[in-house]
User: Fold this.
Amino acid sequence: MDDVCLRLLSLAGVMILFLAAGYVIWKYGSHKVFFLLWLLILGARDIPFYRIVKVFLGICGSLLLAAMICAGTGLIEDYTYARADGAVRHALGTGSPTNCGAFLLFQILCWWYLRKEKITYYEAGIAAVIAVFVRQYINARTAAGCIAGVAVIMCIQRFFYQKNERQGKTYQMNSVLSSLLILSHIFAAGLITVASVFFDDQNPWMVKLDSLLSTRLMLGRKALNLFDFKWFGQYIRNFSHAEGLTEGGYFYIDSSYLQIALM
Assistant:
């Protein structure tokens, strides 16, 4: 009985610390999304990650599909944005084309996670078709590139699984490669942050890299010129094209790593 009480007290202490930290970040930064993430972390305790992903895909995937169909058929408004080169970008029931592309990418990643070794070349082909759709119709280039990359890796994964099945073996990824993939988001965050800090629009190769990343380095550098890093974050209002601003009024920290670090 004493052990149970001790565990409950320990859990309560951790929850109080988490909630206090989340409240401070929310209070200083005025961004409630971080506080909500804190609550999500606490609420997800002891729930298998597989189940969380399955519920997320079922609910969010269904809502996204319904929104896209309704926007495509005219039942709800489809926000469109015109690029400087004349291309038209479709939001398809979401807040922006970028969000729509990102939502599709994460639904595909969730599907891939749930399917694991059962993933087939047909499913990889569907992902490739979605990548083309995202690039041509939604016009979200970064998301399209990521989805296309996922489709390629799906094919590589399927190839190695089948190869090992024929040899009567169980596929096991190289431990070094597995570790690098697990830490890839940390490496990406560090790389993007450092590249943004040292971005120089007079440096040809950095300008080229910035162009491939849809000017995210330039936008990150602009944010760093205007704001400092603070312990508990800060409120930063982003102005997107959806605000209906005149040319030159656009300001959006279009780099999640820097946006989270600054805000």
Q: What stands out?
A: Residues 89 and 139 are 5 Å apart (CA to CA). The first strand starts at residue 80 and ends at 82.
